[in-house]
Write a structure and sequence with these properties.
Distance between the termini: 70 Å
Helix content: 40-55%
CATH architecture of the largest domain: 2-Layer Sandwich
Number of domains: 3
CATH class of the largest domain: Alpha Beta
CATH topology of the largest domain: DUSP-like
Strand content: 5-15%
Radius of gyration: 26 Å
Bound molecules: zinc ion
Order of helices and strands: HHHHHHEEHEEEHHEHEHEH
Number of helices: 12
Strand order of the largest sheet: 2-1-3-4-5
Shape: elongated
Length: 328
């Protein structure tokens, strides 16, 4: 049968789109200008969305924008929305929201998680990491902490190559970036107290389950005072239980503030030990709890058990770490 279509024109739209995915954006634009048939390529939102993400690292847009329109703006250089924002979901995690809330409550005492000396200024917005950092630590690690929420100004920032600070979604930003920043900020700062508490309960129970399954004993382990550990357990497991206050670690201290060497600790990760004074948790869980609840007294870890008077506690800790091997 005779057809006046060229072989290229006889390709199905699916094949054409697949083909276009293997070309760079300038070539796709040239194709679309060359021929009416190909010009339809740019009305395909799925293709444009994939090209926007592949070539510009952007996976978000303003609801009134099309990906075709966005691709054109990016291609012509009219806008340069931050690609770092693509790694931050619109809905922040409940754990991140809890860390943010707590950092507001303990503003004066929250220190940078990295240097431990400067006051915490930013919350990392990576969904899997809730590190609080100061400006100088943020500058030094700008790849790892690409999008930061300022605890004082409530804006999102990124540190540039030259060390300067850039506000995301400000007056110079395009509407796509502005919309994205607004969504993330609202999700972090929204105040839906009842639902939030319930979501936090579930999120923290998940963190606890993760901790139970974690068998990396090379991590540093910390102590959590027992009565606080119990109220946290109630909060996690019983609907309607109140949020515990600050971690009552001062009960593990002697009068000079150092760890009391006479306390009892669990010797087995999976066996309940009611007659003990503290629970043992990995630094992963500790770092969340410390930020989300704050600590009365101070943090105690294996590092506090180095001198001879702590030999007994050291044995508890070693037995605890080895206990994971006695279960199949
Ligand atoms: Zn720091």
């Amino acid at each position: 049968m005779y057809s006046n279509k060229t072989p290229m024109e006889r390709l199905t739209p699916e094949i054409l789109i697949n083909l276009a995915m293997h070309l760079d954006v300038p070539s796709v634009f040239q194709l679309s200008l060359a021929n009416k048939h190909f010009s339809k390529l740019f009305s395909d939102e799925l293709l444009c969305r994939q090209l926007v993400e592949r070539d510009y690292g952007i996976n978000y847009k303003h609801p009134d924008e099309t990906y075709a329109g966005l691709l054109h703006l990016l291609y012509t250089g009219a806008i340069r929305p931050s690609r770092y924002l693509s790694a931050v979901p619109d809905e922040v995690t409940d754990a991140k929201r809890a860390v943010y809330r707590a950092s507001l409550a303990h503003k004066e005492t929250a220190n940078c998680d990295l240097c431990k000396t400067n006051p915490a200024e930013y919350l990392n917005m990576d969904p899997a990491d809730n590190t609080l950092v100061c400006s100088s630590c943020a500058q030094e690690n700008k790849q790892r902490y690409a999008v930061l929420f300022s605890l004082s100004s409530e804006g999102l920032y990124t540190f540039m190559e030259d060390g300067s600070k850039h506000k995301l979604g400000d007056d110079s930003a395009d509407r796509n970036e502005v919309h994205k920043v607004k969504g993330i900020t609202e999700s972090l700062t929204s105040n839906d107290t009842i639902n939030d508490l319930d979501r936090r309960r579930r999120a923290e129970h998940q963190l606890y389950i993760q901790e139970l399954r974690r068998e990396d004993m090379s991590l540093k382990h910390y102590l959590i005072e027992k009565t606080w550990g119990r109220s946290w357990m109630l909060f996690r497991t019983r609907e309607g239980s109140p949020l515990p206050g600050r971690i009552t670690n001062q009960k593990l201290a002697r009068s000079n503030g150092t760890l009391d060497p006479n306390i009892r600790l669990p010797m087995d990760k999976y066996r309940p030990a009611p007659e003990t004074h503290a629970d043992i948790v990995s630094e992963k869980l500790w770092s969340y709890l410390e930020k989300a609840y704050g600590v009365q007294g101070r943090a105690y870890s294996e590092d506090d058990m180095q001198t001879p008077e702590y030999v007994r506690l050291r044995v508890y800790m070693d037995d605890y770490k080895k206990s994971i091997h006695s279960y199949p």
